[in-house]
Amino acid sequence: MGYLRQVRSAPPEAEIETSCLSVYERELDYLFETLQRLGASPREVEDLAQEIFLILHRNWPTLDISRPFRPYLFAVAFRVVCAHRRRRGREVPYAYLEAEDPAISPEESLQSKESARVLMAALETVPLPRRAVVIMHDLDGFSIVEVAARLSLTRFGAYARLRKARKELASALRRMLKERVGR
Amino acid sequence: MRLRDTVTDQEVKAVMDRGRQIRRAPDLVRARLLARARAAVAASTAAAPVAFPEKPAAWHERRLAVAAAALMVLAATGAGAALYSHATHSAAISPTPQRSPQRPMIPASAPEVPPAEPAPQLVSSSRLQRSHRSLSPQESYAAELDLLQRAQSNYASQDFPDALMLVAEHARRFPTGRLAEEREALRVRSLAGAGHGDEARRALAAFAKRFPRSAFLPRLREQARAADE
Lengths: 183, 229
Known about the structure:
heterodimer, A: mainly alpha, Rna Polymerase Sigma Factor, Chain: A, Arc Repressor Mutant, subunit A, 70% helix, B: mainly alpha, Serine Threonine Protein Phosphatase 5, Tetratricopeptide repeat, 2 domains, elongated
């Protein structure tokens, strides 16, 4: 009986395509936001998102989609951005995006845009490995265990990065907010 | 000083709180990203090998080995040739072991049949079945129409690179499709719109050669001329 084993039949190809595309479509806003938080410029975001989609599509048959998808997506985005930076070799400062949310009032929108602009600028000052941890934990709300697992860190390492990143981010935010008040 | 720090901390917290919101990506970017993703899926679907070739092929090879062994036994007992050809024909494997002189005889106990011939045959025959399925008139027309409608909407929103990408995808999948004339016209217009004057002229010349009586021609000539100017 040892030669008998349970096998799972592969889902039909069309179903794979549809679900990969539909999940990508559902998570597109999150991916877009994440890439910007990781410092991708508006010009780069589309190419990077496409690169991430191709990775998802390639790995889709082996993915366990019953588990939370965003931590995985973040980890893929982080690695793609890191690889892109290595290729590019330097960081290009960018003017920040204009994403409209029709559900909120103009005042709120202005405030929200301004906050987003300040936050993105402050995130830029945090080195990418620590930035990824603070984004995942403090902005996306993932647990430290998930963060450590997805970024291939020990839990201690993740905490250490988080602590340092928080300090750097808070100090950058304070500086920028003061500058804004001073203007 | 203390008060000032406290206020700043609150502001920092407020900025972080607002930063947790996931804002909606601009619609145009969304549309462009989804079109690129769909095109990538379509390209991979068209180029990919059949979904699960390994296991069925291996299983089929073993069945072939057993059938071949049985036939050899039959041939040895004198009941061979006619039944052999009948059986191999019914198994739908075209290169029979007897027809290829260099092919070694298959031992009954060996699951690893000298490989290369049968498996690609099986894959290509399934490919033929797939392509036959995808070439049913309604399906192919609907797929053509869908691709060109997306290309047209990209063209209408002046997203010429994506329009050209979809046009190229259509040309790859349906080189002589029923909407080939519309596709080539759209190619000329997209190239002209994108400001690629030389390429637009070349595409227009190819179009005029292929569809000399097309109703699109006068308008395309105007557009290509406008792109040149």
